[in-house]
Amino acid sequence: MIFVRTTVALLACLLAGAPAGCSGGGSGRFSGEPAKVINDTLQPPTRRADAVRVYWDSLEPEQKPREADALRQVYWRPTTPAPLRLAIAETIGRDPDPEVSEHAKALFRLSLPHESERDVIEAVSGVIADRDWTELTTTLVRTMSRSRAEGPERERAEAKALQRLHPNRSLEQIVFVQFLRPTVHPDDEATMRGVDLRRRFRTEAWDLLARLDPGGAQRRTMLAEIPADVDPMVEAVSAVVGTFGVLPETGMEIRWAETMRAGDARQRRWWEDAEAAHASLSDEQRRGFAMRHIEPVRWAKEHRPEWLSKGRSALYAELESRLRGRQVYVRTATRIHSDGPNRERLSDWRDRLLWGDLLAILIADEALKDPGVRRELYRQAEADRADTTTEYGGTLDADGQAFRAQLYVPRPSERLGDRAFVASEEMLANSARSLIHYHMHVQQPSQAAYAGPGREDLVYAARSGRTCMVFTSVDRGRLNADIYFPHGAVVDLGLVDD
Fold this sequence. Notes:
Elements: H1 2-15, H2 34-39, H3 45-57, H4 64-76, H5 82-93, H6 98-111, H7 118-130, H8 137-146, H9 157-165, H10 171-180, H11 186-191, H12 197-212, H13 217-224, H14 232-244, H15 251-261, H16 265-279, H17 283-286, H18 294-303, H19 312-323, H20 355-367, H21 371-386, E1 393-399, E2 402-407, H22 425-429, E3 436-441, H23 455-464, E4 468-475, E5 478-484, E6 490-496
Parallel strand pairs: 3-4
Antiparallel strand pairs: 1-2, 1-3, 4-5, 5-6
């Protein structure tokens, strides 16, 4: 810690008979105590920030690399306020000493993607651009992907820094290169052993590309300009684009595409069947087609071919007839839609639901008629209620003409409490052909006020690109089913009869 080191240095000076300020010959503005002020959490943040600059000016050149490392430790403390972090970043980031610069780059590489304060992000982005640290391009892309800010994406400090570092490329091209070849520091790989950082950085870059290129035209063009077999990730994305006309919208959807392309002969047959089913669709049915529609179309081609002969209005009419008279439990505990009150009836989403969404709802309703599925859901609900460390969930899969509710209980490291469900790595890896991702709200026998997804559930649907369901205990021995989509639509399917 700086305070300890400086105190020892001052004590040595005093024992030698020198004045208290002998260690640096600085301005003396803090009466020889700038390091103490830096570490004093009772001091105002702006005074602590000023102390950083005074303290740094008081150091001899040979002291700075050591003290830069000490300042990094202060930066990382959870209680360090934003003004102090900003002062540390500016101070060591702009020092010309090569060793100090390496400390600064290491700090920025690890901290900036997790920074929440816009002032700090803007300051550090400016330092990176001013110093021409192109090796931190991945860091800027990750920061821009992970954090949101007011105003246009291209006006953000990270975007401006990226353009300054790579003036001959568009912002989309810069980020696309990071999707293909991000920079992963060897020290980070050693520290995060067992975590595929390269994959993580690539999917974060893709998430950002989707925001910069919402229509997908530029991504499609850039993908077409490189060999599809450059690596498995690019091959998977190119395959779903070429076969189904679908461009994955999120990093999680890229992973989904990879699982679709991997596997055994059974998986390859599934792909061929899905391709044939998709080829039979009309232009109207393909409008808005997404990855979540691939398996419903394949299943319908085999088991309900008459549905594939119907347009959107006909599917809506059939679904409307099915749901008529069913009891609807609208979530009242929290508001989930930012543009108005909670809406969970089919008619609320008549203009939003795509043809493929209507087909998915029909198939989900069929699945809930399966006695084996109903029994399994109630069994899982009882087990979930007895386990207060997590919510339970899983996948709804086609099993021939029947269906299967496959439970994936979160591992100990994935348990975040009784009001959260974490989709495990195993669940994501094994759900290439899944119709639905679902979870439970069954903490109490009767919690109708929580029937339906919460806001975080809608976020998961959007990030994963999945059609999702939630089963809520609305009375003892009674589960209510809601289905919801990445675009925010929620439809109550009524009670699940046990």
